[in-house]
């Protein structure tokens, strides 16, 4: 019996399907997008059969998908112009390359999905595209992608590359800032780590005296350092000093970062109404060249919680005076150590945590180091996972979620685990934990350790490039995956999403200004985040394999033997062999 399921966030659609068994003679599947008017469009394809050449605008009807799940990153290009709501038709094909025909077995139609950030009446989840290690970016730069040229493009408001990579993220941030100037009045309270994007700075300037900003001191760029500037926010600080109602300089000491990226909207009557938070720094790189997410919650209780934190940060800054080492004092740490559980209208909950939440900053000794309270909750939730743990992170340090996910995998061999990080040593730590071996300290020049394919570091087509493909660029800065996300059992009533600015390890809880929200029971949110995590993981997993295994893993040719490619997904008795296919097919999509 055929079956197809589809899931979406605001940026991409994932589709999975099954016929309950291998289909004799099946050469693959044509996948069609069906819009709200019933128009069918075959999705593009990249791979070709041996002896054939890639054709301009080729589709899956000519060169089919030889998998049982796929994603559609192109729907967003027409969303808004034609439709944001889609279904997908899966058509099995048979015959010879060049003359494929639909099989007699029936096609499958998925459920309807909508590309939208709206996951609940008062909750929106935004994801940017943020992937620069793509053939599209390489082609746009004539096959020679370089960091400086790309950075120049994404810094220009209105630039096509900027708009494409940022997706909905620019509008999400600008629309929130505009709430204070939409005729209803009100004010904005913000705490930001990196603020360097001209379009975003200009919007904050327009907010004028309605803006009350706590601004951190990130590391200066190489260009700034060459001019003797040590504050990465030097330019934006000078601009907003002239316009903001309040600008508080939170200049933390080295080895600490004031890492928040949140805004609170307070209405004209002084009531906190909404909060925006997540992993997105207010820079062109944060918008465009690294993966990021942002939550917008029209929740008065959660908004007040973040406003209270803003006031705690302001008081801590004032109490420290000019002494950076006096920041993150005992009063702030004690307040941060007390979480707040907030009930939602649909009976789901969100637990709000802030950092630093340990009695003191992190010491040099890691012996008998106490687990921070927010990480204790997160580790416990991971340990309780029944079906799946998915995550994206930048560089969480150690101990972190990577260690706890490995422990959960050891306890439950059937647990579906997938994760992608920027830092190679972090990914290697997962394998060391599985092996029960302490991860050795790396010296400069040492190669990173081996990685398990379930948890990988991001890679691009750099040293190994398949035939017919172009070399890619991996990063335009330090981060590639900059999300800070954990998703647990996304198809369960007990699903969990943890997200915010927190890097998901001890380091952030001990030493950084950070926020973390743990949503429980919000299935639409969990499924949107699961879609995003596996979209990013899948993008990098093949590239990781090619760079790890070399040209033997870089074969992009379609198979001409139906049983050969299908055997990766189904056994002869119909048993599912692919863990990821089993994960998707075990789901019931939530309507939103």
Rounded Rg: 24 Å
How large is the share of residues in beta strands? 15-25%
Number of helices: 18
Distance between the termini: 26 Å
CATH superfamily of the largest domain: Endonuclease Chain A
Number of domains: 2
By secondary-structure content and strand pairing, the structural class works out as alpha+beta
**Low-confidence stretches at least 5 residues in length (pLDDT < 50)?**
none
Helix content: 25-40%
CATH architecture descriptor name of the largest domain: 2-Layer Sandwich
Which strands sit side by side, in order, in the main sheet? Answer: 10-11-17-16-15-12-13-14
Tell me the CATH topology of the largest domain: Endonuclease, Chain A
Round the mean pLDDT to the nearest integer and report it. 95
- The backbone outline, from C-alpha atoms, is globular
Main β-sheet description: 8 strands, mixed
In short:
This protein has 592 residues and is α+β, with helices and mostly antiparallel strands. The protein is 29% helix and 21% strand.
Give structural notes.
By secondary structure, the chain is α+β, with helices and mostly antiparallel strands. The chain folds into two domains: 3-116 and 564-585, Immunoglobulins (Immunoglobulin-like, Sandwich), CATH 2.60.40; 130-521, Endonuclease, Chain A. It contains 18 helices and 25 strands. An eight-stranded mixed β-sheet has the order 10-11-17-16-15-12-13-14, with helices on both faces. An eight-stranded mixed β-sheet has the order 18-19-25-24-23-20-21-22, sandwiched between helices. Strands 3, 4, 6, 7, 8 and 9 form a six-stranded antiparallel β-sheet that branches. Helix 12 (373-383) runs parallel beside helix 13. The longest helix has 27 residues, at 523-549. The radius of gyration is 24 Å and the shape is globular. 50% of the residues are buried. The model has no long low-confidence stretch (mean pLDDT 95).
């Amino acid at each position: 019996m055929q079956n197809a399921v589809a899931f979406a966030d605001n940026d991409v659609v994932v589709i999975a399907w099954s016929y309950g068994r291998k289909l004799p003679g099946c050469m693959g599947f044509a996948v069609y997008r069906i819009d709200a008017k019933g128009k069918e469009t075959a999705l593009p394809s990249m791979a070709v059969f041996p002896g054939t050449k890639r054709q301009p605008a080729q589709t899956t009807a000519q060169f089919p998908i030889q998998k049982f799940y796929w994603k559609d990153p192109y729907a967003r290009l027409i969303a808004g112009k034609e439709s944001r709501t889609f279904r997908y038709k899966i058509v099995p094909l048979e015959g010879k390359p060049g003359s494929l025909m639909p099989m007699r077995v029936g096609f499958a139609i998925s459920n309807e999905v909508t590309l939208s950030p709206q996951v609940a009446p008062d909750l929106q989840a935004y994801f940017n595209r943020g992937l620069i290690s793509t053939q599209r970016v390489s082609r746009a730069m004539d096959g020679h992608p370089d960091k400086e040229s790309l950075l120049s493009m994404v810094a220009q408001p209105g630039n096509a590359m900027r708009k494409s990579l940022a997706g909905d993220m620019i509008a999400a941030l600008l629309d929130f800032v505009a709430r204070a100037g939409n005729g209803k009045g009100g004010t904005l309270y913000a705490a930001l780590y990196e603020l360097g994007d001209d379009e975003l700075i200009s919007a904050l300037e327009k907010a004028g005296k309605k803006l009350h900003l706590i601004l951190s001191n990130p590391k200066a760029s190489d260009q700034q350092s060459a001019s003797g500037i040590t504050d990465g926010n030097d330019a934006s600080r000078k601009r907003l000093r002239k316009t903001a109602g309040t600008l508080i300089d939170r200049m933390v000491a080295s080895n600490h970062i004031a890492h928040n990226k949140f805004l609170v909207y307070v209405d004209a009557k002084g009531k906190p109404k909404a909060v925006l938070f997540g992993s997105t720094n207010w820079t062109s790189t944060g918008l465009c060249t690294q993966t990021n997410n942002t939550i917008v919650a029209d929740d008065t209780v959660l908004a007040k919680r973040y406003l209270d934190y803003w006031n705690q940060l302001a008081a801590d800054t004032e109490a420290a005076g000019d002494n950076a080492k006096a920041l993150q004092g005992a009063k702030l740490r004690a307040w941060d150590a007390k979480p707040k559980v907030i009930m939602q209208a649909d009976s789901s909950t969100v637990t709000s945590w802030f950092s630093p939440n340990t009695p003191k900053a992190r010491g040099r000794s890691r012996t008998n180091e106490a687990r921070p309270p927010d990480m204790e909750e997160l580790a416990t939730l991971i340990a309780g996972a029944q079906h799946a743990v998915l995550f994206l992170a930048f560089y969480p340090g150690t101990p972190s979620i990577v260690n706890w996910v490995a422990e959960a995998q050891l306890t439950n061999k059937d647990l579906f685990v997938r994760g992608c990080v920027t830092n190679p040593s972090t990914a290697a730590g997962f394998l060391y934990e599985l092996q029960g071996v302490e991860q050795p300290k790396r010296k400069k020049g040492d190669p990173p350790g081996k990685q398990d394919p379930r948890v990988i570091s991001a890679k691009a087509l750099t040293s190994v490039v398949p035939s017919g493909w172009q070399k890619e660029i991996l990063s335009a800065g330090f981060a590639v995956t900059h999300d800070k996300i954990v998703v647990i059992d996304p198809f369960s009533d007990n699903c969990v999403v943890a997200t915010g600015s927190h890097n998901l390890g001890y380091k952030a809880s001990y030493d950084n200004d950070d926020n973390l929200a743990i949503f429980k029971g919000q299935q639409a949110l969990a499924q949107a985040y699961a879609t995003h995590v596996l979209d990013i993981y899948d993008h990098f997993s093949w590239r990781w394999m090619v760079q790890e295994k070399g040209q033997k893993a870089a074969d992009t040719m379609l198979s001409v033997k139906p049983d050969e490619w299908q055997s990766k997904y189904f056994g002869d008795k119909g048993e599912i062999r692919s863990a990821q296919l089993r994960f998707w097919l075990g789901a019931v999509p939530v309507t939103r």
